[in-house]
Amino acid sequence: MPTIYDIAKKAGVSAATVSKVLNGRADVGAKTIEKVKRITEELGYQPNSLARGLATKKSKTIGVFFQDHLNSGFRHPFLQDILASFKDVIGEHGYDLIFFANNQPNNQALSFEERAKDRNVDGLFLLGVPRTDPKLASLIKSEIPCISIDLDLMGPRASYLSSDNIAGAIMAVDYLVEMGHRDIAYISDVFATKPGHDRLIGFKTAMEKHGLPILSKWILASDFSEQGGYQSTKKLLESKHLPTALFCAGDMMAIGAMQAIREKKLKIGEDISVIGFDDINLLKYIAPRLTTIKQKKDVMGQLAAKELLKLMNGSPYFPTPVTVSVELVVRDTVVKRA
């Protein structure tokens, strides 16, 4: 396999000059650049990415930290679409992704910053990391460019992106009220994530706007899983006075809620209307079709990649949080009250 020394010998230049040409440096004459590139192609030279990284101090890799409360890993329906579109944009700019495992023995001791530097990544992408993680403080102060989804991470080279969760929750309640519902229950987020917190704010804001009662017994804490929505709804259905509508903070919760309603021999929509949040791809296989608030997951992944590329560029840039709009998707699980 040819080396840069073979290229240098044949071109009659130094190995340092060959290295400059291969790394796109501008301080080499045009004729020399043309000659080195021609000989490189003739010899079939393939640059070693590790060696190139040492020379340029760039590894052309992005580290991905993903922490999942539900232990569903990369099967998580919300995560899949975001990662796919993030990867597409990052790949177009010549970067690869490195996924950091959560279950290594020394993970508790090492910070995000230490693990990122150990792998020499150029930037970080964080998903599902809790706001309370004590390791975030040092990461924000570090010089490592990083972007997060649904985690309010802000610093000189750190920013975050999220859907407009407050507006989405208001949109959901507004639609239920428009359809004649006044007795509305809400299944919330037990993990106190930013999306869960914001959606609860939106729910309460909309209920107050319409002058509707916010009953503590009708706000149930759950996780974002199907099982969580199922268990919370079973508890809700034990009440003598039932709501006419149920707003779930996530679609998987709503799918579980619908199962609990069926088991109670109640009709979804006619007896209790249900609305979710996310618009995951799985919904195409669910009947009746779930009315929900759509998160633009492809857009979120693309924008996250573009923001991280700006942060890694090194030029003066003052990051600001990115908020992505949401949409109401009307289907079959919300029925108008007479």
From TrEMBL:
Keywords from the UniProt entry: DNA-binding, Transcription, Transcription regulation
Span of domain HTH lacI-type: 2-56
Keyword presence, DNA-binding: yes
Source superkingdom: Bacteria
Ranges where the HTH cro/C1-type domain occurs: 3-46
SMART domains: HTH_LACI
Signal peptide span: none
Pfam family for this entry, one: Peripla_BP_3
InterPro entries to which the protein is assigned, alphabetical: Cro/C1-type_HTH (IPR001387), HTH_LacI (IPR000843), LacI/GalR-like_sensor (IPR046335), Lambda_DNA-bd_dom_sf (IPR010982), Peripla_BP_I (IPR028082)
GO MF annotations, alphabetized: DNA-binding transcription factor activity; transcription cis-regulatory region binding
Protein name (record): LacI family transcriptional regulator
Organism this protein belongs to: Pullulanibacillus pueri
Gene for this chain: lacI
